[in-house]
Amino acid sequence: MALFDDEARPVVKTHQIGQDLSLLSVGELQDRIAQLQAEIARLETELKAKGATKAAAEALFKS
After folding, report:
1. In this structure, are residues 9 and 2 in contact, taking their beta carbons and an 8 Å threshold?
2. What is the CA angle 55-60-63, rounded to 5?
3. Domain membership flag for residue 17
4. Non-local CB neighbours of 23 within 8 Å, separated by 6+ positions
5. Could you say which of 8, 11, 12, 24 would form a disulfide bridge with 28 (CB–CB 3.0 to 4.6 Å)?
6. Contact between 24 and 32 (Cβ < 8 Å)
7. What are phi and psi of 43, to 5 degrees?
């Protein structure tokens, strides 16, 4: 709890879906976008890896 209105508010490092964005600065929004883009790339990489594993398993059982 801040004692004075001019005290800095705590910076939230992670993004929450549906979070109020109106209080974030342009820089904070850009940081969030970069974090989310990195997370999307990580998820896509994992998805491709799982797809390759599934394809290999399906090829093994079709033989």
Report:
1. yes
2. 125
3. no
4. 9
5. 24
6. yes
7. -65, -40
User: Which amino acid makes up residue 60?
Assistant: L
pLDDT digits (tens, 9 = 90+) for 17-50: 899 999 999 999 999 999 999 999 999 999 999 9
Q: How many domains does the chain have?
A: 1
pLDDT reported for residue 13: 66
Domain, as residue range, for 63: 25-63
Q: Are 36 and 15 in contact (CB under 8 A)?
A: yes
**Per-residue tokens: 24:** 């974030």
Does 50 fall in a domain?
A: yes
- CA 56/CA 50 separation, integer angstroms: 10
In a domain, 1, yes or no: no
Amino acid found at 24: L
**Per-residue confidence band for 59, with pLDDT thresholds at 50, 70 and 90:** confident
- Residue 52 falls inside a structural domain: yes
